[in-house]
Amino acid sequence: MDIRGFEVVSAYEDADINLPQRKTAESAGYDIECAEAVEIQPGEMKLIPTGLKAFMNYDEYLAIHIRSSMAIKRGLMLVNSTGIIDSDYYNNEDNEGHILIAIRNMGHETVTLAKGERVAQGIFSKYLVATDDQATGIRTGGIGSTGK
């Protein structure tokens, strides 16, 4: 059975977090909002809390992309170009699978993002593995835990 979607992490359960939605029937991405107001200085990188976690099938991932309006109008970019949320990131023991979005202000002015402002979009995708793939590891933590 195919399952995928979003939930609010426990630390934000009383913070009035909106679950991501697609705005049109042909939109690929689910708009993701800031869980709290954030100020980003010129040249600064900041992790933006979303208050969200995503669940999906084992052979899927959630790709995080900056909204084009954030890049074009506000001078913001994702630090890692595209964020990848693996299916086993959900409910990990370090941060419950909280999706944090790493953003850099490439402009010359401070950018203030309001709570509830749509900053990124998430697109669920399937992935393939090599015929001789032998991955057997199990995630034990949050961000960066598979590289330890």
From TrEMBL:
Q: Which reaction does it catalyse?
A: dUTP + H2O = dUMP + diphosphate + H(+)
**Keyword set, alphabetical order:** Hydrolase, Nucleotide metabolism
- Pfam families listed in its UniProt record: dUTPase
Q: What is its EC number?
A: 3.6.1.23
Q: Which residues form the dUTPase-like domain?
A: 17-146
Classification via InterPro entries: dUTPase (IPR008181), dUTPase-like (IPR029054), dUTPase-like_sf (IPR036157), dUTPase_trimeric (IPR033704)
Q: Where does this protein have coiled-coil stretches?
A: none
Its domain of life? Bacteria
Q: What are this entry's molecular-function GO terms?
A: dUTP diphosphatase activity
Sequence similarity: Belongs to the dUTPase family.
Protein name, UniProt field:
dUTP diphosphatase
Q: What is the scientific name of the source organism?
A: Veillonella magna
Gene name, per UniProt, is: dut
